Amino acid sequence: MSNFTMSDFVRIKYVSGEDTLTTSIKAANKMNLFLYKGAIMDKSVSYFFDAENKGILKITSFQPKTIGFFKKEVANFFKEVSNRNCSEIVIDLRDNQGGYVKAQEYLISYLNHKNKQYTVQHVYKRSNFDPFAKMSYFKRKRFMHRAKRYGITSQEYDFMKSELGTVSKISYSDVPENEFDQTYNGKCTLVTNGLSMSASVLFASWFRNANRGEIIGTPCLGPMSGTFGTSVSLNLPSTGLPVLISTVKFNPQYAKETQLDPIFPDKLIGYSIKDILLKNDPVWNYLNIKKDENHSLK
Predict the structure, then answer these.
(1) Cys-Cys with 62: which of 15, 103, 117, 134 at CB 3.0–4.6 Å?
(2) What are phi and psi of 203, to 5 degrees?
(3) pLDDT above 80 for 201
(4) What pLDDT band is residue 150 in, cutting at 50, 70 and 90?
(5) Cα(252)–Cα(124) distance, rounded to whole angstroms?
(6) Residue 141 maps to a domain
(7) Is residue 50 located within the same domain as residue 160?
(8) Which residues on adjacent β-strands are paired with residue 50?
(9) Does the residue 239 lie in any domain?
(10) Phi and psi (nearest 5°) for 196?
(11) Is 203 exposed, middle or buried, given 0-12, 13-18 or 19+ CB atoms closer than 10 A?
(12) Do 180 and 137 have their domain in common?
């Protein structure tokens, strides 16, 4: 969060039993960090098909620059899966730190071949930082005008009018759909790790509950009973250090009890120091993914 000189660096040590590996990474100034983040957002969705015709979809964020771009790329992947008649796909959510709930629901729409209802309860606390308070001036005016003109008495409108400190639970329920009315019912594997969080946790929770396939990798950062989101950044007054505070809790309604343990994969696959040194992906080895050089990453 601060500017650094090019002489500053961060030292990282990997430990695996008695084996250790120490490496250093140069610090980035704010502009470089901004440019790096922009590059990551541009590539939030990518995919390829291996030599055995498995489709591998990599989603690094559910918060792309535009939701239209996200939907287009996800749709293109499943369209090609259909054209190739793939019998197996892999969805890689490693290092995906979340984003829009609607984006992960759009991904669900292509896998929800049984057309089951998907219900998530949003728990809000009225404050100057909740999602409704952070609406732009014009969006808020349009919402209020529509509510008054058409006599809408929705839970959202009632919550918006409530006093600060009011806690409200609003449930959103529908069958996730896509504009192509397309679903994939073949074999599917989900890959997660410790940086799969927020919307990625919601997706992993649905994936496990729907028995949609095997989850491999390492535990994601959240349990079956939901996650937090819509964070605001506040700076501590004495140190200036920024902290993130979530303003909403997402509770999938199929989870009847609150759980604290993270979603544990069916097959635990972690990185060893040797994997890091050789730039080897143990997940790909487990899945026997052999990249076809004739088909580059899209």
Answers:
(1) 103
(2) -65, -45
(3) yes
(4) low
(5) 15
(6) yes
(7) no
(8) 291
(9) no
(10) -85, 110
(11) buried
(12) no
Regarding whether 103 and 55 lie in a shared domain, the answer is yes
- Say whether both 47 and 94 belong to one domain: yes
Q: Are 35 and 292 in contact (CB under 8 A)?
A: no
pLDDT tens across 2-17, in order? 555 666 777 778 777 7
- Phi/psi class of residue 95: alpha, beta or left (left: φ > 0; alpha: ψ in -120 to 50)? left
What's the whole-model pTM score?
0.81
The two tokens of residue 46 are: 């990518």
Helix (H), strand (E) at residue 72: helix 67-84
Domain count, the chain: 3
Contact 197, 97 (CB under 8 A): yes
Residue with tokens 């009315």: 181
Same domain, 31 and 19: yes
Torsion sign (Cα): 62, 176, 254, 185 = negative
Asked if 226 and 255 touch (Cβ cutoff 8 Å), the reply is: yes
pLDDT of residue 19: 77
List the domain range (segments joined by +) for residue 133: 127-165
Indicate the DSSP class of residue 6: T
Q: What is the CATH number of the domain that holds 110?
A: 3.90.226.10
- pLDDT > 60? residue 91: yes
The model's confidence at residue 186, banded by pLDDT at 50, 70 and 90, is: very high
Residue 204 sits in the same domain as residue 283 = yes
pLDDT confidence of residue 41? 45
Instruction: Name the nearest CA neighbour of 219 among 181, 278, 263.
Output: 263
Same structural domain, 221 and 279: yes
What are the start-end ranges of the H helices in 128-198?
A: 137-149, 155-161
- The pLDDT value given to residue 249: 92
